[in-house]
Structure formats: structure tokens, C-alpha cells
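Lab notes, practical 5.
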Amino acid sequence: MGTRSRSRRIDVRVTDAQDAVIREAAALAGETVTTFLLSAAERRARDLLDERRHVVTSNKAFAALAASLDEPPCEVPELVELFGLARIPDA
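Output from the prediction step:
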């Protein structure tokens, strides 16, 4: 975590057992409860986002994708019509 000032607040309710285990673990880590929870939540969030941002595929599927991207573009009439429509004004 950076040294940026914290301007937002997240409130959570926990059971007595959750509170005890979190406080014990934070103390063991030599961290405040806030620092402990934030580092754990941020690490989990980044891991989850990284899992969803990376695509794993076979060599055969990747080769097929690369080959299709190397082909010359073709016109899709429906898209030409769609992009020819008048722009919807901003609200």
C-alpha cells in the first residue's frame, strides 16, 4: 500500500470470533487491524482482478486467433449501418 492519505471509509460488521482472529493475526503481524485488513483485502482484490484480466488458451486456439487478426478486414453491413446512425445526445 502507498502512503496516500485515506479519504474513503468502508465499514464492516464482524462476529466476535472474526474480530478475535483478525485482531490476533494483526498483532502477530505487528500491524494495526486497519492495515492488516486493508492489505489482505487489497491483495485478494488484485489477485482476483489479475485472474480475470489474463486469458489462457491453447497454442492451437491462439494461432487461429492470430491468423484471423492477420487477415484483411471485411465490411460488416450491420456495423456500417449502426455507425452511420445519428449520435444519441448526452443526458
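Observations recorded by the TA: Residues 6 and 27 are 22 Å apart (CA to CA). The chain has a mean pLDDT of 92.
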